[in-house]
Design a protein that fits this description.
The protein has 195 residues and is an alpha/beta fold. The chain is 43% helix and 14% strand. The protein is built from 10 helices and 6 strands.
Length: 195
């Protein structure tokens, strides 16, 4: 079986939420973080240390999107920039991991979905909390039946409470997105069975 081509990816917005991109940097598995774009390039030495020689930093995301060596992009910029950056990346043929919320308006969400459909590039909206063991366990308990429901009735108690929103410069709805998506995922069987 032929070896798979390594995947080279970049991150737009490497500070704060963008640090998730460092977890995906696994050169031994063919996943290499090769570039980052930020409005300011201070405090990014750990990227150069982790990603090695040749790691590229810029303040202009278009430089990354124009690079044919970049296969995919993490979009972890402030919420109001998600649509601009995601649509541009998809139009450039890059696969996109888009941090939530997807965008700040329904029209912007529609534009992102349309760009992904039109270009055939992959789009993943980062609802990664659904993969946390505690969230999966809560869903399992809910699906076990009504006697277990009370154990998982407060989806906001998953070690990511309102203190996160206070530190964020993003919209106040950002922390609510976590609760809504987590609740939707956990209680899915309840909603489907009552419909």
């Amino acid at each position: 079986m032929p070896a798979l081509k390594p995947i080279h990816f970049a991150v737009l917005g490497p500070h704060n939420r963008g640090r998730i991109s460092l977890l995906a940097h696994r050169p031994d598995e063919g996943l290499r973080l090769v570039a980052a774009c930020a409005s300011h390039l201070e405090n990014l030495d750990d990227y150069r240390t982790t990603c090695g020689e040749g790691f590229f930093l810029t303040t202009d995301y278009r430089e990354i999107l124009a690079n044919p060596e970049v296969d995919a992009v993490f979009v972890c910029t402030p919420d109001h920039l998600h649509a601009e950056h995601a649509v541009a990346a998809l139009n450039a043929g890059k696969h996109v991991f888009l941090e939530k919320p997807m965008a700040t308006t329904i029209a912007d969400c529609d534009a992102i979905i349309e760009a992904a459909a039109r270009t055939g590039a992959k789009l993943y909206v980062g609802h990664n909390m659904r993969f946390f063991p505690v969230v999966r366990k809560m869903r399992e308990l809910i699906e076990a039946g009504p006697t277990m429901s009370s154990l998982a009735a407060e989806p906001g108690s998953c070690a990511c409470g309102p203190q996160r929103a206070q530190k964020s410069r993003n919209s106040p709805a950002t922390s609510s997105v976590h609760r809504l998506r987590r609740g939707s995922f956990i209680f899915k069987s309840c909603f489907l069975s009552s419909a």
